[in-house]
């Protein structure tokens, strides 16, 4: 029997941690299945007591103390260390039932300290895994850019705990696999609510996919992505199609701050901000919520404050649905940083005023009227 330590670096190094590390849970499940003694370590002290230490992180900006990676008994991995070249887990661990109790003691400690149980729902209520892996889009900013297709990865039974109420899928591009319907039917047969955490590729939607997807017992908000304003025409066509099958509010990840041409000059930053605002306008029209995701280099922009302000406004659905971007800035006060950022940008680029004054409820109501809804 070996003594095994599992370290989720993001758990230690980030203020909020609301999602478990699947690799850590699989490694723990595998070693417990072998009869090893496994502990979740929440610090980096006395690691020499363990025969083996697994260290994983998802985010590149999570700090790990100097010297830890050089320890002979430490094995480290994950996108946080290797980005798009992260090594895979050993097959016997990759396809082992995750240890859904790895975080139990840590979660209980947080609850005892007064934390809300809802903040830990993915630790307590969900089976988590991949039905498929990979994507064919090859987006330059994505950790999946080295794939050229979507591959089958695991049967649902491999990671579904019958005792858990819900299912969370981490698939990169589920709808891109030819057997998507077969897998979706298997999810439906469980009777459990399920969600795709990474979002779905709305560019692949057709009548059959819409009919099957929007008739499912879905958990939470259907999430897609609108990463490039150049896709606006196609996205809008798919939104029109979606609205033939459902009127529920949808969410779209809106990636920004990434220059695909690797220029990073002022012209790029201005174009990128207007591209983001245009995407927000289109989503408003079809009663969809944006979720702004910023590439790390946005901090280099001379308009950094614009990215921050737009994200804070758009990523709060309760605010976004009620207030225009201008009203949000005014709500914060005319002396606030966000008001100053908007004001300075508008002085240089007066055409921004159009986007500042768009309102979710007004724009979506007009578009619904044009489509004959509610008549």
Report on this structure.
The protein is α/β, with parallel strands linked by helices. It is 36% helix and 14% strand. It has 16 helices and twelve strands. A four-stranded parallel beta sheet has the order 2-1-3-4. It has a three-stranded parallel beta sheet with strand order 5-8-9. It has a three-stranded parallel beta sheet with strand order 10-11-12. Strand 8, helix 7 and strand 9 form a beta-alpha-beta unit. Helix 11 packs across helix 14 and helix 13 crosses helix 14. The longest helix has 20 residues. It is globular. The termini are far apart.
Walk me through the topology.
Blueprint: E1 3-8, H1 9-13, H2 22-33, E2 37-41, E3 52-56, E4 74-77, H3 79-82, H4 91-94, H5 104-112, H6 121-124, E5 126-129, E6 132-133, E7 151-152, E8 166-169, H7 180-189, E9 194-196, H8 207-213, E10 223-225, H9 232-242, E11 250-256, H10 266-285, E12 288-294, H11 304-314, H12 317-320, H13 325-331, H14 337-348, H15 352-356, H16 360-370
Parallel strand pairs: 1-2, 1-3, 3-4, 5-8, 8-9, 10-11, 11-12
Antiparallel strand pairs: 6-7
